[in-house]
Design a protein that fits this description.
The complex is a heterodimer of chains A (200) and B (174).
Chain A: H1 9-17, H2 21-43, H3 46-62, H4 75-87, H5 89-95, H6 97-101, H7 113-134, H8 138-149, H9 154-161, H10 165-182, H11 189-197
Chain B: H1 15-65, E1 73-85, E2 91-96, H2 111-120, E3 144-148, E4 153-158, H3 163-166, E5 170-171
Parallel strand pairs in B: 1-4
Antiparallel strand pairs in B: 1-2, 3-4, 3-5
Classes of the chains: A mainly alpha (200), B alpha+beta (174).
Chain lengths: 200, 174
């Protein structure tokens, strides 16, 4: 939870785009963890997820004219770009190879046995959801990613994608129907409830 | 806004790489105005070079177009008062012909001599009155060049070598 006295993303972004480094640093510190977790959930490698974080924030700086601040927050836009970067990782990495080459080599991280066991239990379920989502159209996948995976409101997703709220709602409904038919019945009730709850 | 994948066991970014990413990003923010300036300078130099090449190419092409020609129409000579076109793109000139038989033009073989004579008669002087019986004499320019008009006739222009090309006319071939 952010302190109300802290400047909003919108204010920081305005300062950052005016050339204030510290404002950009504050935004990086504020959102890097969330971007990293989203990246890690898909690439399953700390080093690769760190590379994604670097590319997302560099993309924000390079495309600063296109950044959308939704409800005073930059996070929805960053998460949307994270999705793009992950799905086009090879191409984006080529684009930002100079930045990535400047980063130190990743250290060898040993996984704790309990973590590995827990992850093995969760991964097939997440993998099943991801495989089912992969068969949807690009826009359906994007809407599901924002509204179901990230649990953003329909209004936020609509503002982010530049679509009418009604359009996002109907596309979300159709995408969820398709997803329901494709996910295996063995999916945990908790995860299934999350998928169903997105429409509310 | 709790993401579906969120899990307290998810790893964190490593401190060393996170600091490096932060520093690399801030360097990007810091250096971008300088980089942009350099990029603009490089772009200017590149397009400037292309422009110079293009102008050179056009000049060469222009030179090729206005290659020297022979005067093929010797029935008229255009004596130009200056090596400039008027605002309407036309030359300020006096044309001269020599009469032979009635209604037929004669041959003008020495265009420079003919135009020099016109200069000396004061034809190009300011306030010249063609109907007056007496004219104040004028002075012929020391440098007169023969150029060739589109119809093959000679145009005598005051100026140094190269003046024909500058006017878009072909110089007379020797």
């Amino acid at each position: 939870m952010r302190d109300d006295k802290e400047p909003s993303d919108a204010a920081l972004w305005l300062e950052a785009t005016s050339g204030t480094e510290s404002a950009f640093a504050a935004l990086f510190d504020r959102h890097r963890r969330r971007v990293f977790r989203k990246a890690y959930a898909q690439v399953r490698s700390v080093a690769d997820a760190e590379d994604v974080v670097a590319m997302v924030f560099l993309e924000a700086w390079r495309s600063r004219a296109n950044v959308r601040i939704v409800d005073g927050s930059m996070l929805p836009w960053l998460l949307k770009v994270t999705g793009y970067v992950i799905s086009n990782q090879t191409r984006t990495a080529r684009r930002y190879k100079r930045l990535l080459a400047a980063l130190p080599e990743p250290a060898q991280v040993t996984d704790h046995a309990d973590d590995v066991l827990g992850r093995l239990e969760r991964e097939p379920q997440m993998l099943a959801v991801r495989n089912a989502m992969a068969k949807l159209s690009g826009q359906e996948r994007e809407i599901l990613d924002l509204c179901v995976v990230e649990e953003m409101s329909v209004a936020t997703a609509a503002a982010l994608l530049g679509l009418p709220v009604g359009t996002v709602k109907s596309k979300l409904h159709r995408a969820r129907e398709k997803l329901r038919r494709r996910i295996p019945p063995s999916l945990s009730p908790a995860l299934r409830a999350r998928l169903d709850g997105a429409e509310a | 806004m709790t993401p579906i994948y969120d899990d307290e066991n998810l790893p964190e970014m490593t401190g060393r790489r996170m600091d490096a990413i932060r520093e690399a990003l801030l360097t990007q923010v810091r250096d971008e105005p300088v980089t942009n300036r350099m990029r603009r300078r490089r772009r200017f130099a590149l397009w400037g070079g292309v422009g110079i090449l293009a102008v050179g190419g056009v000049a060469i092409a222009g030179t090729a177009i206005v290659q020297s020609q022979e005067v093929s129409n010797r029935e008229v000579v255009h004596c130009l008062s200056s090596a400039e076109r008027g605002v309407n793109g036309k030359f300020d000139e006096s044309s001269a012909t020599l009469s032979r038989d009635a209604g037929k033009a004669g041959r003008v073989d020495d265009a420079i001599a003919l135009c020099s004579a016109m200069w000396q008669q004061g034809v190009f002087e300011h306030g010249f009155d063609p109907l007056s019986a007496t004219h104040a004499p004028g002075t012929a320019p020391t440098n007169l060049r023969v150029c060739v008009m589109d119809d093959g006739s000679a145009a005598v222009v005051p100026g140094r070598p190269g003046v024909c090309s500058a006017l878009g006319l072909a110089p007379e071939s020797n």
